[in-house]
Amino acid sequence: MTTPTADIDEASPRIAGKHELVEYLEGGNKPDPGTWRIGTEHEKFGFIRDGLRPLPYEGKASVLAMLEGLRDRFGWEPINEGGHLIGLQRDGASVSLEPGGQFELSGAPLQTIHQTCTEVGRHLEEVRQIADPLGVAFIGLGASPIWSLAETPIMPKGRYKIMMEYMDKVGRLGRQMMFRTCTVQTNLDFGSEADMVKKFRVSLALQPLGTALFANSPFLEGRPNGFLSYRSQIWTDTDPDRTGMLPFVFEDGFGFEQYVDYALDVPMYFVRRGGSISTPAASVSGILWTASCRSCPASGPPWTTLPTICRRFSRKCASSDSSRCGGPMPGRGHIFARFPPSGQVSSIARPASMRRGIS
Q1: What is the mean pLDDT of the chain?
Q2: What integer is the mean pLDDT of 143-149?
Q3: What tens digit of pLDDT does each residue of 221-233 get?
Q4: Residue 134's pLDDT is what?
């Protein structure tokens, strides 16, 4: 979950109607493909080498020590909340924390996959230089391999307490998702509403395939968990209001307005005002707004596969050959209709090669 790098402007006009939300998404159109960018997000688990313990927020070997080291040595600017250092920003990129201390690079918008590879490599090298003297290491897996939920630390971000309470009301595995999973994500620009629809549909149709190809979460609490992608299994019982496939995306007439209608029906987690976070009134609803297409099928794979994931999704979404995926909901004979549901993919996925984390 990307950490906001600026507070809400309290003096800005309040939204007066649904049309403003539609216009906001329309404002994300980039008709010139030369202006399109790729944004990637890369999460990983940190741990203390001595005893393989999870990385706490504070202490000599800790998340805080990692953030302070990156800030002081490599010129990252701090992001604070409630007196706590919770993130960093530099040159359009940011480092943020997931609820259980998962370390996330939210990359800058870049032109090519080669630049993405360079950015991730530079980030991991900086992380390694800070981590090694602290006796800390990181590993890229989709689910926490040995630490129980009780052992996992909670990061000092106001939204996480609210989210924990909310998750308990809507699913059985919401806290597992928050504290014990990692992923990588790809964000793509679109040229028009029609281009957004095509990329959205292709991206959704590829989710089960991406899950299977990059399955990387077969262990839990030190033993096999019965799945090749336990992370994707967790998402089947997390929050039905905002997870799973979206059949309406494949319906005739889908566009910005239909997405706004969907978003307004999704209950809001929290409201951020004046630097503080609180539970919204029961009548308030909404969802994260972003003028780009996001895809996150992969279970925290090793960083070396990140450019591959981004390349496959960006090429498939941009390819003219993929335009056939931009039509209505596929029938029973269509390849996407025949592909196993995501709940089955977590069990039959191709085993990912196990690689060492940052050492």
Answers
A1: 84
A2: 96
A3: 999 999 999 999 9
A4: 98
Q: pLDDT tens digits for 9-58?
A: 777 888 889 999 999 999 999 999 999 999 999 999 999 999 999 999 99
Distance CA 101, CA 87 (A): 11
